Amino acid sequence: MEQISRKDLEQILEAGNFAPNAGGGQRSMMVAIHDKELATKIGKMNMANFDRRHLAGSFVSREQPSTIDDPTIKNGFYDAPTVICIFSQDNFMFKTADAFCMAENMILQATELGIASCIISRGYETFENEEGRKLMKEWEVPEGYSCQCFVILGYISGEQPHGKPRKTGRVKIVE
């Protein structure tokens, strides 16, 4: 998969940096991996202890294979050459919401730039081991922070998957 440009990566990170966050506290940080080999290593760490037994509605789609559907996928980042890790303060109530706001802003910017993207979970589990803690220290992630999620970036091989039809009954207006 083709690597994205450094310029595009910086634009995507800027979008994440300007995401809404609880109280304007800016308590989350991003570490961008712009190295395919390292992204692959962390993607494999992401899948290392993945437990499929607790998945509800596990099937994603025929045209969009998922780690949920296919246990032969060993890289949780689907071989994307760029990965952004979003870390947040452990002792903050809105850490996950803040991280996912950052991730969504980055996804929107990536789409604008014609770059494929996806938000991936299992951040905490990925780094909750000796190798993960070593990487966090190397990247100068402060003590008391944990990874909430990832944004993977690259160029899609083949056709863009079609959006799924919207389920009915998911929107209510109360007046």
Profile the largest sheet.
4 strands, antiparallel
Task: Give the C-alpha Rg.
Answer: 17 Å
Order of helices and strands: HEHEHEHHE
Strand content: 15-25%
- Average pLDDT, to the nearest integer? 89
Structural class: alpha+beta
Helix content: 25-40%
- What's the overall geometry? globular
The strand count comes to: 4
Strand order of the largest sheet: 1-2-4-3
Distance between the termini: 49 Å
Description:
- The protein has 175 residues and is of the alpha+beta class.
- It has five helices and four strands.
- It has helices at residues 6-17, 36-47, 95-112, 123-127, 130-138; strands at 28-33, 82-89, 116-120, 145-154.
- The protein has a four-stranded antiparallel sheet with strand order 1-2-4-3.
- The termini are far apart.
Short summary:
The protein is an alpha+beta fold and 175 residues long.
